[in-house]
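Design job #97: recover the sequence.
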């Protein structure tokens, strides 16, 4: 069996993971009788590799199939595209392992989805994301998050959740739940899909601007609606038939998104499909779903990884870190900073 860590140590998490040297791991994985099992219920499902860029091609194929988070501990610029995430110090590694330990199943699932979504069609990527998301909805980690959150109820809303300002040459779609920081509800999703569907009519080439009303672009899915769908299979069908992501992808060349304040979860996932994202200097971005026992479920494993690559996407997901506008610009998550 592949030993991931030494569970008998009381040292920090990073000390319990002795990094595999690339050559040793390649030798272990290249054997036809290699035992790739591990005790995932009692071990943190993480494989730490030193100098992963030196892995053999055969071992890379084996690693892609392992249900673990593949981490490279690198002390230089020679990093590998074969791992899920790169750390540059033991301190950084220890912090990352601490995050993974809180929701290990969601962490592994997120990395598996990102790993296998590279270079696939939007439809296939969204399917993989939705099936994995639905699986996690039935898991203990999400159940624990739901229990800790408590029940929330929203009153009926009289105002439209999407405002449409249509002109001859352009159309503005504005998220319109400012008192709730434009939380992305089922009603907002359905209204956005309906507006985008109309703009996909043959012969309509108008530019599309998407904004958020108020000081916050979108805080992500409405917390009051998490866990309210009757079962995960129904949830998958809803995501398959009423998802804004395919329409945003279809119309991406015509879409500009302007972001002020927070763009969290679905807020940044859907925006990332646009061909251009403009952010104010106070804008910030976060993917908190793994901390809830889930993965991004509004298309983010497809849209964000296409913009910044799967390793930075995995970093955002597994740490839930807050990414400021300047960093987002440097990564390519946004295209310009505006006042």
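Job complete. Output follows.
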């Amino acid at each position: 069996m592949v030993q991931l860590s030494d569970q008998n140590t009381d040292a920090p998490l990073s000390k319990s993971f002795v990094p595999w040297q690339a050559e040793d791991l390649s030798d272990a994985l290249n054997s036809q009788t290699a035992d790739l099992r591990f005790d995932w219920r009692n071990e943190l499902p993480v494989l730490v590799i030193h100098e992963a860029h030196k892995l053999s091609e055969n071992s890379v194929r084996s690693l892609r199939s392992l249900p673990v988070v593949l981490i490279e501990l690198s002390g230089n610029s020679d990093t590998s595209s074969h791992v899920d995430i790169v750390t540059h110090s033991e301190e950084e590694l220890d912090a990352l392992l601490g995050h993974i330990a809180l929701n290990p199943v969601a962490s592994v699932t997120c990395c598996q989805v990102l790993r296998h979504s590279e270079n696939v069609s939007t439809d296939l990527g969204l399917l993989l994301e939705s099936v994995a998301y639905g699986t996690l909805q039935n898991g203990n980690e999400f159940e624990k998050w739901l229990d800790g959150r408590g029940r929330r109820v929203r009153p009926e809303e009289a105002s439209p959740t999407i405002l449409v300002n249509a002109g001859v040459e352009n159309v503005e779609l504005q998220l319109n739940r400012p008192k709730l920081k434009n939380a992305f509800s089922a009603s907002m999703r359905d209204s956005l899909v309906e507006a985008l569907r109309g703009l996909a009519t043959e012969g309509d080439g108008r530019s599309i601007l998407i904004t958020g009303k108020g000081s916050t672009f979108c805080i992500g899915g409405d917390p009051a609606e998490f866990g309210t769908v009757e079962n995960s299979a129904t949830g998958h069908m809803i995501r398959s038939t009423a998802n804004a992501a395919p329409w945003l992808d279809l119309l991406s060349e015509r879409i500009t998104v302007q972001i002020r304040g927070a763009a969290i979860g679905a807020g940044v996932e859907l925006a990332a499909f646009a061909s251009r994202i403009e952010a104010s200097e106070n804008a910030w971005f976060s993917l908190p779903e793994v901390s809830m026992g889930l993965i991004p479920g509004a298309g983010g494993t497809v849209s964000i990884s296409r913009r910044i690559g799967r390793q930075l996407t995995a970093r955002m997901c597994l740490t839930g870190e807050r990414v400021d506008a300047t960093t987002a610009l440097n990564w390519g998550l946004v295209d310009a900073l505006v006042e």
